[in-house]
């Protein structure tokens, strides 16, 4: 499989970063201590399905980067704006980009799928579905159970806007569309 060594380096390197961030979160009593289980699980699940997804090492790197950047929220980054955009929007766009690239490649190389043009709508729709599942079953359910705070299971900075979920979904969608566009440009 292409990039097998790199995929192993990425999953192990990201896992090490997650462990270090978990230690920091535990010593500062950050709510991000719970995110450790989700991000570690997410990267290892994608790695486990690497052959079925026909995982490209660079796409996997972007997915790992998304998870790490998300967990940098433990340093309070979700309260910040960079170039007039919320940090949260960058994180969601990065997820959409990684998901778009991974899904497009996986479907394009699938023997049962003919052509690429239907992937223009299918990949963003699936990325939006994954995003919606996160918004409902992780953020919303976590907020109902645990209340306000920081981290994936809490409502905190970056989530106080009444349009937060819609904005999150929009930036996930935007990232996935960029991923599909880049995939078409590659023609590979």
Please give a handful of descriptors for the protein shown.
mainly alpha; 69% helix; two-stranded antiparallel sheet; 188 residues; 7 helices
Write the layout of secondary structure elements.
Blueprint (H helix, E strand, L loop, with lengths): L3 H24 L7 H14 L1 H4 L3 H15 L9 E2 L2 E2 H22 L10 H28 L17 H23 L2
Antiparallel strand pairs: 1-2
Helix pairs in contact: 1-2, 1-4, 2-4, 4-5, 5-6, 5-7, 6-7
Q: What would you say this structure looks like, in words?
A:
The protein is an all-alpha fold and 188 residues long. It has seven helices and two strands; from the N terminus they run H-H-H-H-E-E-H-H-H. The longest helix has 28 residues, at 119-146. It is globular. It starts with a helix and ends with a helix.
Q: Helix-strand pattern, N to C?
A: HHHHEEHHH
Give the strand order, joined by hyphens, for the main sheet. Answer: 1-2
Given helix and strand content, the structural type is: mainly alpha
Global shape = globular
- Total domain units: 1
Task: Report the average pLDDT across residues.
Answer: 87
Number of H- or I-type helical stretches:
7
Helical content (DSSP H or I, runs of 4+): 55-70%
Short description:
This protein has 188 residues and is an all-alpha fold.
């Amino acid at each position: 499989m292409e990039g097998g060594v790199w995929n192993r380096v990425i999953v192990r390197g990201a896992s090490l970063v997650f462990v270090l961030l978990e230690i920091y979160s535990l010593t500062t009593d950050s709510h991000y201590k719970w995110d450790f289980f989700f991000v570690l699980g997410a990267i290892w699940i994608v790695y486990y399905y690497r052959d079925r997804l026909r995982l490209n090492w660079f796409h996997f790197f972007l997915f790992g980067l998304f998870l790490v950047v998300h967990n940098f929220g433990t340093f309070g980054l979700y309260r910040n704006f960079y170039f007039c955009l919320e940090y949260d929007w960058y994180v969601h766009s990065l997820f959409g980009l990684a998901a778009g690239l991974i899904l497009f490649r996986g479907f394009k190389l699938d023997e049962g799928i003919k052509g690429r043009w239907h992937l223009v709508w299918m990949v963003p729709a699936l990325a939006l579905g994954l995003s919606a599942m996160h918004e409902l079953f992780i953020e919303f359910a976590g907020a109902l159970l645990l209340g306000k705070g920081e981290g994936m299971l809490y409502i905190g900075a970056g989530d106080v806007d009444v349009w937060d979920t819609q904005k999150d979904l929009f930036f996930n969608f935007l990232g996935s569309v960029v991923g599909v566009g880049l995939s078409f440009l590659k023609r590979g």
